[in-house]
Fold:
Amino acid sequence: MSETKDALTGLDRYEEFLKKLEIEIEKMEKGEMEGYRIAIIYTDIKHFKYINDTYGYQRGDALLKEFVHLTTNGNDHMLCAARVYSDNIVMAVCLEDKYSNNDFRDFIHSENLRLEEALREKYLDRRLRLCTGISIISNDDRRMDAETSVSNANLARKVAKELDEECCVLFDRQMMEGIKKEVEITSYISTAIEKGEFKVFYQPKIGTTSLKVIGAEALIRWQKPDGKFVYPDEFIPVIERSGQIVEVDYFVYREVFKFIAQRLKENKEVVPVSMNVSRVHLNKMGILDYVKSLFEEYKIPANLVEFELTESIYINNTEKALQLVEGLHAMGTKVSMDDFGSGYSSLNLLSKLPIDVIKLDKVFLKEHNLKENDKIIISCVIEMARRLQITSLCEGVETLEQSDYLAQIGCEIQQGYYFSKPIPQREFEVFVNENYQSRALA
Ligand code: C2E
Ligand code: CA
Ligand code: CA
Structure:
């Protein structure tokens, strides 16, 4: 086999492919490809590793060869093709101008479905799926080089891989904008922490019978130097993907411990504060040591902090979640199941997991006047929690009617804009001080 060919598939090596593609692009620019564009098709086989692990590498190799054979053999439109690495195959084809980009995407989509069927039959794996990203090079593009066009197609492939329904995605500029924004955020996070742009806000939790502040949830806020806020929904998913959420969560935990320690030192009233735990912590589990070190440093009683783990963490990763809950319990802190009911809640998990609080997701209270069906579900969940001796909390309480109804059915704690939005530490301190004054006067 020559040095320019991949031994397994017989396709070009990637470097060779780029050279050939560069030549095709030049031809197009010189007007030698009148009526045609170039389409880059970047495909990988989802669960290929699983096939290798289950059926052996020989079978994996055979599958790959067959895939290449089916897609390249007798393909008159093909300009060049290569195996980038492992099961990542890239191909450049010429695409007639009479077909739109979307037509072409639809065509590759149906081709993929056909190929999947053929390969599944032979390789007996129902999970086998092809994921494809496409980028189109046309003469309108200002000098598009080979490498960029492949990386655009690869980006579209990654998007396709995250989707359940679509196996084939066209690259577009917006995708690039999204990535640019992600890079902007991720490259600035550490500086933002250093510069003090992150602040911890506190949203009071109200005891249903006492109507007093009995706790708070710590929520991160990012205020840019121009005063504008970036909200968690905008940056948390991004820094979860990059893993930086761990650093940001630790920052929040430290601020909360510092705040509580300071109040205790000043002999002021203190209520327990809960902190959110991202799913990303389950990967490394350094969180337990970090929290332990905070307890050693700030010496605050364990019952003054709580941790919130979102429902999906428990469902997708029950073993690890259990380990985390047990580790936090061993330090004496409470743990809640956040966003209960937002996804596919598994009711039997509630009896299996040693959690202390369930926080009913705000979706249940989306209507200001509660619908009968929602009422039935909420009251059943609250009753179930009571019988399992788990504290119930409803979040997203926005109206007096909702709050009254929750009181009527015995929901113990309420949180929502009706009582207070998340507020800066100073304002929250006023909230707590007034709360205790009014109790003293009552
Ligand atoms: P979450 O943990 O479910 O937090 C509750 C969210 O509901 C907060 O949004 C809060 O401001 C909002 N909220 C509270 N009361 C009401 C209400 O009455 N009506 C409505 N419509 N919304 C209400 P926020 O602060 O924007 O946070 C969004 C999400 O970002 C949080 O959802 C949480 O998943 C995540 N998050 C926030 N701070 C942190 C953090 O420090 N660490 C981690 N890992 N995640 C965080
Ligand atoms: Ca929460
Ligand atoms: Ca929540």
Q: What stands out?
A: The longest strand covers residues 36-46. The chain has two domains: 12-171, 181-433.
